[in-house]
Write a structure and sequence with these properties.
By secondary structure, the protein is of the alpha+beta class. It has 4 domains: about 70 residues, RNA polymerase II/Efflux pump adaptor protein, barrel-sandwich hybrid domain (OB fold (Dihydrolipoamide Acetyltransferase, E2P), Beta Barrel); about 140 residues, Rossmann fold; about 70 residues, Ribosomal Protein L25, Chain P (Beta Barrel), CATH 2.40.240; about 70 residues, no CATH class. It contains 12 helices and 17 strands. Strand 13 and strand 14 form a beta hairpin. The chain is globular.
């Protein structure tokens, strides 16, 4: 693994790709149990769109393929072996759309892009209304975005310039006020400052502000800053970036800090000797937007930048269930926990009722699960609005 200057590196013996990170994909495996694979080599592809490939996050041996109901892929697990080679790729000679898209598809980098609405991987021949690069992170205890981008500034710039070539649409680089990012190479790159609370680094906020898709039927794409660096590393060096930077935090973590780790690292190994004794709750993400780890998915998810461990009583660990009373009580708190321009109470009621058309009118198409997670914690009904939103989005997508 390459090491970020001044950053502690924590190694693990196992890493994985998680099926639920790529919704709507019917995976075709390109490997079998026991196979040796190179980091960056294609190990799966989308059966419906075979151009879209998924690369091994580490070099090693395929140790487990875990499936759930209807044989849906939960995880493809790899025992790490750093002695094996890594895959190599020939960077494109030009910045035209066909060359850049083909390179991203071949190297597996295309799977880092996501659409709004619905949060899918874009179609290889799709035409977005805009492309968004999320170059800030305001969530509590998040890694220092500025330090990470500045450390890999050449890779970041190379990827942003390349991303301007995947379409004729404007490309927005959304950044913090104290981290000016200037690109003089393309008139289509628009650097935009965002400032505010924890939600200010959510792609939904940027899309809602700069290119709202709403009822217009358009599509925008977005990508996180570490996936941008990973793309830049492929472009400049012809090899995958063998690390991600995450933070360990929460009131049950003994030493909160940022770490350089393998993509897809086993979270249990990352937390070894890091957590206080006693009951605790592990979240993939921050204390506000994180999700509780699911069985078989205790690995870093695609794009995950944090692991949060919260001390909890035994009753807390049992979790909450939806109340039989689905009351939504208006409050200033709810107003602060949803994207600007979305009215939380009628929106939450529409989700509870499964009223897809009403939810669409109120802004559902600009949201994915992470945008509504704080509502579940704040609402007295204990409704899981992430699940309710996805149910509505599935209805809307099926009606297209």
């Amino acid at each position: 693994m390459s090491v970020s200057p001044g950053l502690e590196t924590k190694y693990v013996s196992r890493a994985a790709l998680l099926g639920p990170d790529y919704r709507g994909v019917n995976f075709e495996l390109l490997c079998e149990l026991g196979d040796e694979v190179k980091s960056g080599a294609a190990v799966m592809r989308d059966l419906r769109r075979p151009e879209i490939r998924f690369s091994a996050p580490v070099s090693g041996r395929i140790s487990r393929i875990e499936r759930g109901a209807r044989r849906k892929l939960i995880s493809l697990q790899i025992d790490v072996d750093d002695s094996l080679a890594v895959a190599e790729f020939q960077p494109p000679a030009s910045n035209d759309s066909v060359s850049i898209r083909n390179f991203m598809l071949e190297s597996g980098a295309w799977s880092s892009l996501r659409t709004r609405p619905f949060g899918n991987i874009p179609d290889p021949d799709g035409k977005p209304a805009a492309v968004f690069v999320t170059a800030l992170d305001a969530e509590p205890l998040a890694p220092d975005t500025r330090t990470i981008i500045d450390t890999y500034l050449q890779e970041f710039r190379a990827a942003v310039n390349a991303l301007t070539g995947i379409s004729d649409a404007p490309l927005y680089v959304c950044h913090a006020p104290d981290h000016a990012l200037v690109f003089e190479d393309s008139s289509r790159i628009r650097c935009v400052t965002f400032n505010g609370g924890y939600s200010v680094s959510l792609p939904g906020v940027h899309i809602n502000t700069l290119c709202p898709i709403g009822l217009g039927g358009g599509e925008v794409w977005h990508i996180g800053y570490q996936d941008v660096i990973a793309l830049g590393h492929l472009l400049l060096h012809g090899k995958p970036w063998l690390q991600r930077v995450i933070s360990l935090g929460g009131n049950a973590v003994r030493n909160s800090r940022s770490l350089a780790v393998y993509p897809g690292s086993a979270i249990g190994e990352l937390l070894a000797n890091e957590v206080d004794d006693g009951p605790s709750r592990i979240l993939a993400g921050s204390s506000i937007y994180g999700r509780q780890l699911a069985t078989g998915s205790a690995y870093l998810a695609a794009g995950q930048r944090q692991v949060t461990v919260l001390g909890a009583s035994a009753s807390d660990l049992a979790g909450t269930t939806a109340s039989t009373n689905n009351a939504v009580i208006p409050s200033e708190t709810l107003e602060k926990l949803i994207l600007p321009g979305i009215f939380p109470v009628p929106f939450m009621r529409a989700l509870q009722l499964g009223d897809a058309e009403r939810a669409r009118e109120l802004g559902a198409l600009e949201l994915v699960e992470e945008d509504v997670m704080p509502l579940s914690r704040a609402c007295v009904s204990h409704s899981d609005y992430a699940i309710l939103l996805r149910d509505v989005l599935d209805q809307l997508e099926g009606a297209r």
